[in-house]
Amino acid sequence: QGVAVGQGVAVGQGVAVGQPPAPPKRPAQLQKEAKKREKLERFQQKLERNRSLQAQPKAPRRERRDPGVLSYGVGTPLGEKKDVGVPLPPSYSPRYVEAAWYGWWERRGVFTPPAPVPEGGERVLSMVLPPPNVTGSLHLGHALTVTLQDTLVRWRRMQGWTVLWVPGTDHAGIATQAVVERRLRQRGLGRHQLGRDGFLREVWAWKDEKGDRIYQQLRSLGASMDWDRACFTMDPPRSRAVTEAFVRLHQAGLIYRSTRLVHWSCALKSAISDIEVEKKELGGRTLLQVPGYETPVEFGVLVAFAYPLEGDEGGELVVATTRPETMLGDVAVAVHPEDPRYQHLRGRRVRHPFTGRSLPVLHEPFVERGFGTGAVKLTPAHDQTDFEVGRRHRLPLLSIIDEDGRMVNVPPPFLNLPRFTARVAVLEALKERGLLRGETPNPMAVPLCSRSGDVLEPLLKPQWYLRCGELAQGAAQAVRRGELRLRPPGHARTWFQWMDNIRDWCISRQLWWGHRIPAYFVTIQEPGAPVGEEEDERFWVSGRSEAEAREAAARRFGVTPESVSLRQDEDVLDTWFSSGLFPFSAFGWPEQTQDLALFFPGTLLETGHDILFFWVARMVMLALALTGQLPFREVYLHAIVRDAHGRKMSKSLGNVIDPLDVIRGISLQGLHEQLENSNLDPAELERAREGQKRDFPNGIPECGTDALRFALCAYTAQGRDINLDVGRVVGYRHFCNKVWNGARFIL
C-alpha cells in the first residue's frame, strides 16, 4: 500500500519514506474512509463464511443411474432441480452449466400448455416443428430452425402466453427406402426377395433403431417442445389423415390420373419431386460419375449429325443435340418458320438412318435459330418441350428407355444397352455412316437426383396429380390481402412467381415405404362388362377402405358389389403430401379434437426460405382445400446455413456438422469415423476426409448449446445466407466464459 515507515498514516495514502507528513484531514474525508473500511470488513467476513461452508463435508448425493443425453455425470437425480451451489466452480464448463436442467423442465411440465386455453386465440402461440427425416440426423440448418423457434416460444411463455410447440418427424420415403435397400444389399438381399410386407418390416425396424436420435439431438439443443404431442407422419392418426385427404380431393376432382413425363431416377426406379432435382451447371465438356457406370460419362457437348432428306432432290438436314442416344426415338425434326435457311424444306421429310422411319420437318416457332444449326430433333417421349410440340402435332410417343435406363424399342446393336453406353454406340454408328458433323463444348445444366446422384431421365409414366391452379390462386390472394404475412416481405415476390405460374403436382412415387395410395383399379366380373385400361381414369376409384371403394365402383358401373374386383395401386404418395397436412393433422384432423379447436390455425411457421414453395405453399393450398382456413397467419423465413467457404452442406464434401459435435466437441478422428459409418462411396469418402482435414485439423472444441445458439442467432441478424465458421462459435463460448466469471464475481 506504500505506507511510510514511522509516519502512522492511514492505509492507502501512498506516502514515501522521508516525505513530510500530509496535511490534517477534514472530517468528511475521514467519514468516507471509515465507510470504505466497513464495506471491506463485511466483504472479508462474507468471503470467510463462504470458505468455511465450502470446507464442510457435504451430504452424499443420490447416484444418477439414468444415462440421459444431458447428465454428463453431474450427479443431479433425473428430473430434480439442479443444486448449483455457491461458490460456483472456478472455470466455465458447458457440460456443467447445461446439465440436468432439461429433465427438470420436462418433469415440471413447463412445455405443456396450461388449461384452460384462452378463447379466440388471444395470447396463444401455436407452432409445429418442420418435421425432419426420422432416420436422419440433424445438421446445423436444423439447429438454426430449433434455436429461432425455441427463442420465440420461451419469450412468449415468459410473457404469460399459452404456448404449444408440437414436434414431429417425417417418414422420408425416398431417403429411408434408399438407406434400407443399401443395407439389404450388404447382406446380399433385395427388397423384391423379401416382398413388400417383409421389406416394410425391415424399414420399421430401422426406424425404431435410429428414429430416437433426432429427439435426443432436439433435447440437447434445449428445444422446449410438448413431447406428449409428438407426431410421426406414418403413425395411425396421420395415416388416417392422409387417406381422408386423398379421398376427399379425388372425389372433388382435384386429384386425377394421367400419363405424362416425370423426372425418373433409374437408380431409385421411381419418379421424384422437383425439390429432389439438383441442376448441375456445366461450363462445357465435363465427365460425371453416374451410378451403375464404371467409367465417367461425358456431358456438356453439342453433337451435330445429318438426317438424309427424302426425295429425288437429295440433300440433308443437320440437327444438333446434347443427348444423341435419344435420336433412336425421334419422330420428327423442327426448324423456325422464319428461318431463311430452311424455307425450301416446307412439306419435306427426312429418313432415320437406323430405323428407316420417315420423319416430317415441322416449322415451329419454339426453335431457337441461334442454337446449334437452328434445326432440332423431336423425341416427345423423352423431353418436356418435345412432348408439348408433339401434342400440338399429334406425333407418336415412342419410349426407348425403360425404368432401368436400358434401351428398348430400338434396333440392334443398341437394344438393351444402358442409355449412356448407347450414347457412345450411336456416335460411332453415325461416324461409320458418314453422318456425324461435329462436336462442340456446350454449357448446360444436368438434372441430378439429390438422393442418388443419378442423372435423371424424362420418362412417360402414368401418375397421380393434384390440380393446383385454383388452390394456388387462393394462396396468392391470401398474401396479397395481408391475411398471410411473409417475413422478410421480400419473399412475397418469389411466392407470387410460384403461385402465378404453378403446374399440377405429381404426387405418386414408385416406392414401398410410404402411404400407399388409396386408389383401386376396377375389373367387372360380368359377361359383356366394359374392360378398362390402366390409363383410363374411369376405372379408378378411391376409398377410405376397400369396402368403400367397392361400393363406389358398383354405383359407377351399375353392378352389384359382389361382381367388382379391385386391385390397389402399388405406388405411394409423395412425402411432401403428408407433410403438407402436418399443420392440422398434428392436432388430430380429420377428427374434431379439442387440440384442433384450440390450436388450429397456428400462429406462426418458422422455416428456411429454400422450402417456401415445396412445403410452405403446399401446406397453405392443402389447408385451404381441406379445412377452408389458412394453416397459420405468419411465416418467418430464415437464412440457409452454409460452410465457412460459402458451400452448400454436403456429406461428400465432409462439411455437414452434427450440432452435438459442436456442443460436446469431437476429434478429427471422430469426424472421420462418422464418415465411415455413412453411405458414401470410396471416392466421395476420401474427398470428404480431405475436406475435414482442411476445415477441422484439430477437430471441433467443446462449445456448448448456449454458445452454438448465440452464434446462430447472431448470424441470423445479417439477413442473408449464413457462412458458418465454427471458430465464431468458439468465440461465443469464450463470451459465455466472461458471463460466468462475471457471475462468480458478483456472487
Estimate the global geometry from the Cα principal axes.
globular
Per CATH, the architecture of the domain at 121-244 and 579-642 is 3-Layer(aba) Sandwich
CATH H level of the domain at 121-244 and 579-642: which superfamily? HUPs
The share of residues in extended strands comes to 15-25%
Distance between the termini: 27 Å
Strand order of the largest sheet: 6-5-18-20
Counted beta strands:
29
pLDDT < 50 stretches = 1-19, 58-73
CATH class of the domain at 121-244 and 579-642 equals: Alpha Beta
Keywords:
747 residues, alpha/beta, Rossmann fold, Isoleucyl-tRNA Synthetase, domain 2, 4-stranded antiparallel beta sheet, 4-stranded mixed beta sheet, globular, disordered N terminus
